[in-house]
Design brief:
six-stranded antiparallel sheet; single chain; 4 helices; 25% strand
Length: 158
């Protein structure tokens, strides 16, 4: 049994592009039919820090949500992720955005990601690869959610 998933990737420390591309290679183990977005430069949310490089991937997995979350944490650790402060700078951030049409709310994991609908740096790359995927909470498509926000600070890079 497999489920479609959407994952956000971000980095603003070190060789961000190399780290993000390495993370995508690591995601090929728990996911298949992997489809990445382009990379986007965005301003950081939180304390003063460098701009982020962000993107998203969609794919299929046989892992249950908490198993996939643990795999994402393992990949983050592999790339030197250190959790010091909320919304602080990081080498790699992987967020499980969507897991099929499931709605999960536990202390360990909330799906859809609780801030999915308010983050242009997530919705712009996700709308590129999954515009019609419905948000299980609001019922709006990813593209509709993206169009409702000011996304002028999200810049696609080559």
């Amino acid at each position: 049994m497999s489920e479609s998933v959407a994952i956000a990737l971000g980095s603003n420390l070190g060789d961000s592009r190399g780290i993000l591309e390495g993370a995508i290679e690591q995601l090929r183990s728990p996911l298949w039919e992997l489809q990445p977005s382009h990379w986007y430069r965005t301003r950081a949310v939180g304390p003063p820090q460098p701009d982020y490089l962000n993107g998203c991937v969609i794919g299929k997995t046989a892992l249950e949500p908490l198993e996939l979350l643990q795999r994402l944490f393992d990949i983050e650790n592999q790339f030197g992720r250190v959790r010091r402060e909320r919304w602080g700078a990081r080498t790699l951030d992987l967020d499980l955005l969507l897991y099929g049409d499931r709605i999960l709310d536990s202390p360990q994991l909330q799906v859809p990601h609780p801030r999915l609908r308010e983050r242009p740096f997530v919705l712009v790359p996700l709308a590129e690869i999954a515009p019609d995927w419905p948000d299980p909470v609001s019922g709006y498509s990813i593209k509709e959610l993206q169009e409702a926000l000011n996304c002028s600070d999200v810049t696609r890079i080559s």
